[in-house]
Design brief:
Shape of chain B: elongated
Number of strands of chain A: 5
Number of strands of chain B: 14
Distance between the termini of chain A: 54 Å
Order of helices and strands of chain B: EHEEHEHEEEHEHEHEEHHEHEE
Order of helices and strands of chain A: EHHEEHEHHE
CATH topology of the largest domain in chain B: Rossmann fold
Largest sheet of chain A: 3 strands, antiparallel
Number of helices of chain B: 9
Shape of chain A: elongated
Largest interface: A-B, 64 and 65 residues
Structural class of chain B: alpha/beta
Distance between the termini of chain B: 66 Å
Radius of gyration of chain A: 17 Å
Radius of gyration of chain B: 26 Å
Number of domains of chain B: 2
Oligomer: heterodimer
């Protein structure tokens, strides 16, 4: 059947704990898709990753059917896990909460590589991760 | 009754992975919101409207300015748009789109939870969109259903190539066809078609399986709601599957040049006459073998 894509929505949400509350409800509600079916599917697929934020890309077609693909956890989540942090800094510019070594930065970049537009370059991926780290108050050691 | 919950919808311009990851980190780590949505240009998140909102927005704004000005992440922005939205029943809002719909003169496509007073002549197809797989209300499906209504006769044999939800095979049987073979190259579609077939109580007459080609044998009616270029590529096997004097109903074709091409391709494959029926921007090409 000919299906036109009417929307692509990327959500970063808690694994295994999706509900129709924001951001999921309003983000998907406008497309008229069966939201409980998405929520059920997402929670089932991410049940073993509870505690992480697992992004998901939902593609919606003009007949209100949809498909979704789960992605690697966001860089911020991987950085926290790597450093054993409970959360990032509320004042990322002045209050630092940790520091990543080049090696740790590389490991996270490798893990995120499949989902980043880094053109296959590990350096480009590392620079994206470093940017995320800085925005949450984590510095990079030389 | 509790006051209606309101939400602040916070949209931040951000394009590219680097900016969206960084802004996502600000939202989840700095501001502590549990999640966000992203489209190509924008990251959107939601906060309940309460006495903490103003303070949280200030924190967010400050952190975004850091990302943009201090960290210079390309594509990042500190411009935020706030819009207030009322809490809705998002979980079931989609159901408003699925209502029983009469197609042609007799066919009614009915969501399983909706009540419908069938008239004696009505052919009611029950579809559960809880299976998240189309509803049969797309123009191309309507065109094929109308085509089936016109051409199916009692006891006819039917092949449904690219069955999807199985709605066309189910409709053919409910309209009086004797048997139907439904194929799809997508295993998920095959499973869902089988469920819908079973739900409508026509399992004994419909055989569903995975295949990318028309089923072997010849049929009185062949229906293919796929895409123009696939129909063209399958023109010869579709002709081979249609009995002499039988009818091929195709759709998934855009009206205009594309429909003309399909009609020409089907004629070349051996079909004697073709007819183009359109609804909006979509077309169905009906060909007689």
């Amino acid at each position: 059947m000919a299906k036109k894509v009417v929307g692509i929505v990327k959500l970063a949400i808690n694994a295994g704990k999706a509900t129709p509350a924001p951001p999921i409800g309003p983000a998907l509600g406008g497309y008229g898709i069966n939201m409980m079916e998405f929520i059920k599917g997402y929670n089932a697929k991410t049940a073993d990753m509870i505690g992480s934020i697992v992004p998901v890309v939902v593609t919606i077609y003009d007949d209100r059917s949809f498909v979704f693909i789960t992605k690697t956890p966001p860089a911020s989540d991987l950085i926290k896990k790597k450093l054993g942090l409970a959360s990032g800094s509320g004042k990322p510019n002045t209050q630092k909460v940790g520091a990543l070594t080049q090696q740790q930065l590389r490991e996270i970049a490798e893990q995120k590589m499949p989902d980043l537009n880094a053109g296959g370059s590990i350096e480009a991926a590392m620079s994206i991760i470093a940017g995320t780290a800085r925005s949450m108050g984590v510095t990079i050691k030389d | 009754m509790a006051t209606e919950q309101r939400w602040a919808e916070i949209a931040i311009m951000a394009s590219g992975d680097a900016a969206q990851e960084a802004i996502g980190a600000v939202i989840t780590e700095v501001v502590g919101i549990a999640g966000y949505a992203a489209t190509a240009q924008t990251v959107t998140t939601y906060l309940p409207v309460d006495e903490r909102l103003e303070n949280t927005l200030l924190t967010l704004k400050a952190a975004l300015t850091d990302v943009k000005r201090v960290h210079k992440i390309p594509g990042s922005s500190d411009e935020i748009t706030v819009r207030f939205v009322a809490e809705e029943d998002w979980a079931t809002a989609w159901k408003q789109y699925f209502k029983p719909q009469k197609i042609g003169t007799r066919i009614v496509v009915k969501p399983t939870w909706e009540a419908y007073d069938a008239e004696p002549d009505d052919v009611v197809i029950e579809i559960d969109p809880g299976m998240a797989f189309g509803t049969g209300l797309h123009a191309t499906t309507r065109l094929c259903l109308t085509g089936l209504e016109t051409h199916v006769f009692a006891g006819a044999s039917v092949a449904d190539v690219g069955t999807g939800s199985g709605i066309l095979a189910v409709a053919a049987i409910l309209l009086g066809a004797g048997s139907a073979v439904a194929v799809d190259n997508d295993p998920l579609a095959v499973r869902i078609a089988a469920e819908n077939v079973s739900f409508n109580g026509v399992s004994s007459q419909v055989n569903v399986y995975e295949a990318a080609e028309p089923p072997p044998g010849q049929f009185d009616i062949v229906v293919a709601n796929i895409l123009a270029h696939i129909i063209l590529a399958l023109a010869a096997p579709l002709f081979a599957a249609t009995k002499a004097g039988g009818v091929l109903i195709t759709s998934g074709i855009l009206a205009g040049a594309s429909a003309e091409q399909v009609a020409a391709g089907l004629t070349k494959a051996g079909f004697r006459e073709t007819q183009i029926v359109t609804e909006g921007e979509w077309a169905s090409v009906v060909a007689r073998a």
